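Any chance you could type out some protein's one-letter sequence along with its C-alpha cells so I can compare the two?
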Amino acid sequence: MTAELYAALARLDSAGRTDFPDVYAGLEIDERRGMAIVYRVPSAAFDDHVRRTAGGLPVELRDAVHPLASLTALQERITADLRLWAGRGVRINTVGARHDGSGVEVGTEDVAAALRDLPGRYGADAPIIVVEQGPVVPLPAADAPGPRTARGPRRSPAHG
C-alpha cells in the first residue's frame, strides 16, 4: 500500500463520515491485492466522489446494508445499556459496528440470552450480530509494575 493510497483513504473516510453519512459504511484494506475496499449503501453521488478522490488508485466499491452512522447510533445505545444488561444477567463484553455495514457485533458469553433479549429492546429488525466472546483482558504495559513471567521481576534503577 502506498502513502498516496492511505492519504486517499483518509480523505474518503472523512468525507464519508461528514458529507455522506447516509451511505458510507466503512473501509477495508486488502494488503494482498494492494487495494482498498469502500463499503457503502449504493449511491451514485458517493461512488463518483470515491472515484474522483481515489484518482485512479485501486479502490473497489462494495454494497453495504447499513451506513456507519446508523450502526454507530445503535452501538452507542447498546453501550449505554451495558449496566442494564449486566443487571439482567447478560454480560456484554464487546460492542462494535462492523466496517462492512452488516451490523453491530455484540460479543458475549451469554449468546442465547442476548439473542433472546436484545431484539426486545432495540427492535426485531435491529442489525445486531451476536457472537460468542469472552471478556477482554488487556495486556499489561511493558513498564507496568507487577510480576513478570517472561522477563522476570522488574528492578528499580537504584537496585540495578
User: Anything to note?
Assistant: Residues 68-132 form one domain. The longest strand covers residues 24-30.
